[in-house]
Amino acid sequence: MERFGFAISKGRQIDYDANSRHIAGYISEREPSFRVCIECGCCAATCTTGNFTSFSLRELHILLKRGENESVRENIKKCMLCGKCTLVCPRGVNTRNVVTLARQAFQKFPADAV
Amino acid sequence: MEKHVVVIGGGVAGMEAAGHLQKSGFRVSLFEKEEKPGGHLNDWYKLFPDRRRSSEVKEYLDKITSEDGIKIITGSIIDKIVSDKNQFRISDKDGKEYSADAVIIATGFDLFKSERKEEYGYGIYDNVITSADLEKMFRSGSIELADGRIPETVGIVHCVGSRDEKVGNLYCSKLCCVTAVKQAIEIREHLPSSKVFCFYMDMRMGGAYYEELYREAQEEWGVNFIRGKVSEVSEAINNKLVIKSEDTLAGKPLKMQVDMLVLMAGMEMSEGGLKLSESSGLNKGNNRFFSPADHHFGSNKSNIKGIFYAGTCTMPMNITETISHARAAVSDVIDYLKDSKA
Ligand code: SF4
Ligand code: SF4
Ligand code: SF4
């Protein structure tokens, strides 16, 4: 059969109401400093991982808060927990704990990771 | 003989100026277009950043303007000032004339008319309201949707009528970011189970304790901040409002439904101020506010000797700045009348 190569492309739009923010909730309950991130990017700028791979802790924060969990799930494994980001964050976010809790949450609630 | 100073506009700036002129030994006439003085202060609930009741500031202003030597003329719209050999002839809409040795203009600001941003649906959708409407709800003690239900999700749109070439206002109104944060906290206070989302372009929290209030909103009240200007609002079949913006920090377009949308209306030169500028030859800037003689050394001086400005008729200011600016205008009047031969 002739294949025309049509496909339904998945929308890029964040559908806020359809997304689950269970993982973000899990983190902010246990690490309230997660809430005060202002997305300045200082953590991502200093991060060695981010300088060699496509990984940004800042982006990870925002995606979790919007419930765009799918791409975070794999990406978050790249963090080495070195703690450099914690040293530079102007809002005092305990970034290392955010990463640790996010990894925990992804293991506990695999269904929310999509 | 006691010199007579006319103050046009009985809001915060005008009342503060009148009080200080009286203390400095002048006879003062304070003209207010509404039936009572106080200006926008009469419409607000609590003030940022410490959330003191606006009525407290009003009480202070009432007190300083109730002294002997201050005449308050309400319901009077001044529409022309003519300068004539160190004297000023001031006339109101009904042709009544007054004379003065010096004039302070304190005609303040008008809130941007949000129906002009049609894409946000103010005046079209029942549950799209303005920051001023929300203050009224706070004052009445109940935040309700048009059909009487309690909103569960509330969106707040920053920069409505400010920083927007489409409406001819390039400037930032300076106070709406902190107002949004204050109101977001107050919504959460009144409705603890609600969720609040602020859609902003930049968080401009440049005032004492503004940034701290922003942090408090995140930390203690769980207010959500989404960086992106709302492009359009529509109504869904369930009566909810559908918001479209880009989440610029996630780099993706975003859509969500809210029960209520609050528009942070910006500040514009008041209509009364515009008319006065036309009729009396007072210079305006590109932003249509009165243009002070010098932005650094003469922010109270106009292009006409003996006519001074106080407060938000020159640019957006908060109450603290307005009060300082009004006091500075009085100091200019003292200087001017000391030197003048009148
Ligand atoms: S702890 Fe992780 S995110 Fe932070 S700097 Fe180190 S590798 Fe980067
Ligand atoms: S440095 Fe801190 S505030 Fe800035 S993006 Fe990273 S976590 Fe957020
Ligand atoms: S203060 Fe904030 S909301 Fe107001 S115009 Fe400026 S940036 Fe926009």
Polypeptide structure, described:
The complex is a heterodimer of chains A (114) and B (342). Chain A is mainly α and 114 residues long. Chain A has one domain (22-113): Fumarate Reductase Iron-sulfur Protein, Chain B, domain 2 (Orthogonal Bundle), CATH 1.10.1060. Chain A contains seven helices and one strand. The model of chain A has no long low-confidence stretch (mean pLDDT 92). Chain B has two domains: 4-108 and 270-341, FAD/NAD(P)-binding domain; 114-267, FAD/NAD(P)-binding domain, CATH 3.50.50. Helices cover 26% and strands 27% of the residues of chain B. Chain B contains seven helices and 20 strands. The termini of chain B are close together. The model of chain B has no long low-confidence stretch (mean pLDDT 96). The A-B interface holds A 12-17, 28, 32, 35-36, 38-39, 58-59, 62-63, 65-66, 68, 91 and B 203, 215, 218-219, 222, 224, 227, 247, 249-257. β1 of chain A pairs parallel with β17 of chain B. The structure holds iron/sulfur cluster (SF4) (3 copies).
The name of the CATH topology of chain A is Fumarate Reductase Iron-sulfur Protein, Chain B, domain 2
Number of domains of chain A: 1
Between the first and last Cα atoms of chain B, what is the distance in angstroms? Answer: 10 Å
CATH C-level category of chain A: Mainly Alpha
Count of DSSP-assigned helices of chain B: 7
- Give the DSSP E fraction of chain B (strand runs of 2 or more residues): 25-35%
Q: What is the CATH topology of the largest domain in chain B?
A: FAD/NAD(P)-binding domain
Count of beta strands of chain B: 20
Small molecules bound in the structure, each named once: iron/sulfur cluster
CATH superfamily of the largest domain in chain B: FAD/NAD(P)-binding domain
CATH class of the largest domain in chain B: Alpha Beta
In terms of structural class, how would the helical and strand content of chain A be classed? mainly alpha
What is the CATH architecture assignment of the largest domain in chain B? 3-Layer(bba) Sandwich
Mean pLDDT of chain A: 92
